[in-house]
Amino acid sequence: MRFDDSKIEEIKSRVDIVELASEYLTLRKAGRNYVGLCPFHQEKTPSFTVNREKQMFYCFGCGEGGNAITLLMKIADKSFPEAIKLLAEKTGVLLPARTFGSDGAGKDSLHDDIVHLNLRAAQHFARQLSSPAGKIARDYLQKRAVTEETVREFRLGYVPDDWRSLTDLIEASGLSLKLAEQAGLVIAGKEGSYYDRFRGRLIFPIENIFGEVIAFGGRILGEGEPKYLNSPESPVYVKGRHLYGLGKARQAIRESGYCLLVEGYFDAISLWNAGVRNVVATLGTALTREHLDLLRRYTQNAVALFDPDTAGRKALDRSLELFLGANMHARALVLPDGYDPDDFIKKFGREKLEERIAVAPSISDYYIDCVLGEGKTFEENRDLAKTAMEFVGKIGDEIEKNLFLKRIAEKLGIDQTVLKREIHRKGGTPQPKNAGPGRPAGVAFHPLEMNLIRLMLDFPRKTLLVESEKALDFFLEPALREAGEKIVKAYRLLEYVDINVILPSDGDRPLREALNKLRIETTTDEDRVDRNFSDNIRRIRERWYKEQKRLLQLQLRQAQEQGDGERIAELTCRKQNLIKEEQALR
């Protein structure tokens, strides 16, 4: 989808990148900037920097950077059109409407259409819950003590045990059943027919962090299997990348300083219903690294609820490995036998749950005290030690690693040196950690040329001065000269310059990162812009002439050593002309 450049500029002028970033990250003020933990790579010391004056962000750890549009694209995994539309809604900028289902920008159009269709389906399910047919679902919710407010908050719905309840609605509305199949709402039958995926179920709409309905979960209310049925993955939904309720919970997560992580829809809803608002749930899948990367945008701390059964123990093992690898501070909360979060909160209330959370051990302490304490025989302790060493070998932080190792050695009565040898034998010694992919370590660009490109990006209206002065002809760095030429061309054509459009490829990344870093670190006052441009151009020219004269002098010396009179005359003439050119430009 093509947007008018004036609309893009209007959005950029209205959006506040600090407020936008604060929706996803916890920032603190540091001088002129705001800093926080980077959402794009693992770190313990904040290096992600946001500058309100320049409306830019830059991570000094991994090198990611850009403007508000770029930030939303990267942090929310949105395409350029999706990011523009979301920011337009936030800033009140009116964009030309696109007819639902019309041909558009491929992937972006498909996303919009599926989200729109999912919204229509959610509205249909909500109406069915309020209808006479929905009494069975309303009775069930009342029995579970779910309030009407919570029902509305989570958009809960119902679908009767009917093969075509939603299918008929889609057909009657003139919408595409093929699209509904892509969304996972209907299933293709024989001879081009379709039928509903969800039948006779309480419906849980699944939203992304923007509140868009991207999928559904359904719980059977009568006899039948499976007990829970979830939407398949679709162009807008990958279950390992989303957490149920995160869009609603993220503010409470920030305020409380931690996230409560549970397994099921009803666990999350029941805790929310009881006033616990910093709760999210996985979506019918085990905890993934993508889940933790998502959570790290809002907090470094998590409390994970585990069942005390075998399945819960396996989930603990898997979660421990993930939490250690993600550099998150996680605690393990195991409820008494026979209680899930829903049962516990109903019987004992929010206060008792919070008391247990307050004293919950770290997930590593729980693992050492409870899991490693189960060994009764030599063979059991040996196997437990080997499993534990696999976890230890994945810990990147050396202090945390040694503390964990010491505790395991004490618990199992094994010498630490033996355990360390086991880690080395399995190849678990962590390699030196790179600061992040593509970091411009050791990559140096000439400061004069870099600064002029920086000025062109910060003050694009001055690019025509650079063009008229032919300043780019005096660049010695081909990559910087090419970047400058792209900036001039973009401004002449669009009066719009974006570093991620000028330098879009992976090969451009070192230069893009170096420029973003320079733009964050350097400020030019508006009343000094003209002087800075002029001084920079003059010094670049002086450098270029100095370098050309040096090269000519080397060639002259070689010609003199070889006794090549014709070559000496040619080079001497070129040197004199070069000096005249330089003097004429002063």
Descriptive overview:
The protein has 586 residues and is α+β, with helices and mostly antiparallel strands. The protein folds into four domains: 87 residues, Zinc finger, CHC2-typedomain (DNA Primase, Chain A), CATH 3.90.580; 131 residues, DNA primase DNAg catalytic core, N-terminal domain (Alpha-Beta Complex); 170 residues, Dna Topoisomerase Vi A Subunit, Chain: A, domain 2; 138 residues, DNAb Helicase, Chain A (Orthogonal Bundle), CATH 1.10.860. Helix content is 52%, strand content 11%. The strands form four sheets. A five-stranded antiparallel sheet has the order 1-2-3-4-5, sandwiched between helices. The protein has a four-stranded antiparallel sheet with strand order 6-9-10-11, with helices on one face. Strand 7 and strand 8 form a beta hairpin. Helix 3 packs across helix 4 and helix 16 runs antiparallel to helix 17. The longest helix is centred in the C-terminal third of the chain and has 34 residues. The two termini are 49 Å apart.
Short description:
The protein contains 25 helices and 15 strands. It is α+β, with helices and mostly antiparallel strands and 586 residues long. Strand 7 (186-188) and strand 8 (194-196) form a beta hairpin.
Helices, strands, pairings?
Blueprint: H1 5-14, H2 17-22, E1 28-30, E2 33-36, E3 48-51, E4 56-59, E5 65-66, H3 68-75, H4 80-91, H5 107-130, H6 135-143, H7 148-153, E6 157-159, H8 165-172, H9 177-183, E7 186-188, E8 194-196, E9 201-207, E10 213-220, E11 228-230, H10 246-256, E12 259-262, H11 265-273, E13 279-281, H12 289-295, E14 301-306, H13 310-325, E15 329-334, H14 341-358, H15 363-371, H16 378-392, H17 398-412, H18 416-425, H19 447-458, H20 463-468, H21 478-494, H22 499-502, H23 509-521, H24 529-562, H25 565-584
Parallel strand pairs: 12-13, 12-14, 14-15
Antiparallel strand pairs: 1-2, 2-3, 3-4, 4-5, 6-9, 7-8, 9-10, 10-11
